[in-house]
Amino acid sequence: xxxxxxxxxxxxxxxxxxxxxxxxxxxxxxxxxxxxxxxxxxxxxxxxxxxxxxxxxxxxxxxxxxxxxxxxxxxxxxxxxxxxxxxxxxxxxxxxxxxxxxxxxxxxxxxxxxxxxxxxxxxxxxxxxxxxxxxxxxxxxxxxxxxxx
Amino acid sequence: xxxxxxxxxxxxxxxxxxxxxxxxxxxxxxxxxxxxxxxxxxxxxxxxxxxxxxxxxxxxxxxxxx
Lengths: 149, 66
Hints:
The structure holds 2 protein chains of 2 kinds.
Chain A: E1 11-14, H1 20-30, E2 34-39, E3 42-48, H2 49-56, E4 77-79, H3 84-94, E5 98-103, E6 106-112, H4 113-136
Parallel strand pairs in A: 1-2, 4-5
Antiparallel strand pairs in A: 2-3, 5-6
Chain B: E1 8-11, E2 21-28, E3 37-41, E4 47-51, E5 56-59
Antiparallel strand pairs in B: 1-2, 1-5, 2-3, 3-4
């Protein structure tokens, strides 16, 4: 399965000149913890709710500071058409919870470790279901023939 | 996904009880009607660049709400 097929949440992008206050409100309204910073078609950075706190609030930056002052750049990305198992490896190697998915450098959306776990749990339930049914109500073939005579 | 200016984007809620959100498409930035879209959110009038995932769908102009 391709990585792009596992993007469940829509992504939101902002320009690098937007303020950290505006970005915080975008996160709150959208229920997301990561916003892409885009300049035209180019993904120039990402900013997380944690970045706003650690690089913004904790350092006393004013709320009207530009978001590019707190964003992460360059961005850890993964190509949209790679197999999802490659994404697993990237998550494992870099110990991140979200990855920016790109197509030839263009931002497409966010791949979330949380969503992958929910998918995996759902797959597991589907696999276990027939076993659970068998345990609860064992299926038996027709009566075993008995010897006569 | 293909959209035109004036269409609406509907995004389902991700938490229990969270209502869907909707926005009007102001600009189509991708090729052939594809994303990203510059949108204006109905709830507060703010604009942002939107990259739809599987939680979003297009309601074309003149199409009744589902």
